[in-house]
């Protein structure tokens, strides 16, 4: 009987503890600590889970992703000089990526370390492991694919020409022969101009397109040529300019990633591809396009080639 008594006593104790922990029909009023615990539990429940061997797991464990982008590349990426806050289409794409890794309940900016880059240093920034991703109007091409990996296409555009409104000499790419054309050093735009003009254009290569715009304003260049959407941003800065000519290149943008050598980026590109497809399908991509690109392009899209 004493053995049974001990069992009953133990059972009652377990029931008492269970009730005290919320197992009873009438839970106690929540305290501040209780709310914090509930919030933490909810966050843990919504945080995506990844395989231990995948790169996304190591990023999640570190709590940070290093995103390479440019400080002065409107409407894609700008570091606002007044607030030091990063803004633009590529910037918000990076924030959506952070949400996909840490969950929508977290502030994505707490997980992003911004790494300023220019076109010329995008590839070495990845190969030297100074950034986890490059999200910066990064055209996918075969030469770059020999050195780094890319996600699927998340943006699509083509190259055109920016001139002063008073300029009537330059209407198409053939008219660039003998003219000084500014482009960003290390960009595909530089090569596209040379190819399209059979090396007859004089290239002025600078570190950014705002710098190219200034060069044209000061008479150091006759035109600026790069991807149409970047030119839209320059027109916003200077209303005395215009965009001319048809596309003379295709520019599919991808997210650049260090190659998976030795398993150090295991599963990362497949994850990125699935995520890109998801934000296009669920309308997130279209909303970001309307927010950042529509004001300069005047159109609306729901997909990169839509």
Report on this structure.
This protein has 306 residues and is α/β, with parallel strands linked by helices. The chain is 41% helix and 18% strand. It is built from 12 helices and 15 strands. The protein has helices at 2-23, 32-46, 55-62, 89-102, 122-127, 142-145, 188-196, 209-217, 228-237, 268-281, 284-292, 294-297; strands spanning 65-69, 72-73, 77-79, 86-87, 112-116, 133-134, 148-150, 155-157, 159-164, 180-184, 202-206, 223-227, 241-244, 251-253, 256-258. The chain has a 5-stranded mixed beta sheet, with helices on both faces. A 3-stranded parallel beta sheet has the order 5-1-6. The protein has a 3-stranded antiparallel beta sheet with strand order 2-3-4. Strand 3 (77-79) and strand 4 form a beta hairpin. The longest helix has 22 residues, at 2-23. It is globular and about 60 Å long. The relative contact order is 0.14.
What is the structure about, briefly put?
The chain has 306 residues and is an alpha/beta fold. The chain has helices spanning 2-23, 32-46, 55-62, 89-102, 122-127, 142-145, 188-196, 209-217, 228-237, 268-281, 284-292, 294-297, and strands at 65-69, 72-73, 77-79, 86-87, 112-116, 133-134, 148-150, 155-157, 159-164, 180-184, 202-206, 223-227, 241-244, 251-253, 256-258.
Which features would summarize this protein structure in a list?
306 residues; alpha/beta; five-stranded mixed beta sheet; three-stranded parallel beta sheet; 12 helices; globular
